[in-house]
Amino acid sequence: MAVSKYYRIDEANQEIGNIEIHSQVFEVIAHNATAEIDGVSKMFESISQSIADTFNSKKHRNGVEVEFDENGLVVDVYVSIKVGYAINEVAEKIQKNIHQMIYHMTAVKTSEIYVHVVSIDFE
Questions:
Q1: Per the similarity annotation, which family is this (predicted)?
Q2: Which terminus of the chain, N or C, has fewer Cβ atoms within 10 Å?
C-alpha cells in the first residue's frame, strides 16, 4: 500500500486554509531541473534499481527520491553523465538548479541534495 506524502507550507496567515504539496511535485520539479543540465545523459530510479533494470531490460523510472527531515527537503538524484563532461561540475549545476527551481516554485528550501552518478554514457 503506497502512502501519500504531503509537505505543509506554514504561512503566517492561515485564516483561509492550509497549503499542502504532494511529494511527487518535488520529484517532478527536481527531475525537470536535472534534465535541463548539459552533460546529463539519463536518470535512474536508484542504484539497486538501475542494476536490476539493466539485467531485466526495463526502462528506468524518474531518477529522483524526495524525503522530508527535521531540516527540510532532502533530494536524491540518480544520473548518468555524458562522456567529456566534468562530473563534479555537472553535479554542482544539478544541485544549484534543483535548489533554485524548488525554492522559486514552492518557496520550500532544500536542506540537502545528493547527486548519485550511476554511470558514464559513452554514446
A1: Belongs to the asp23 family.
A2: N
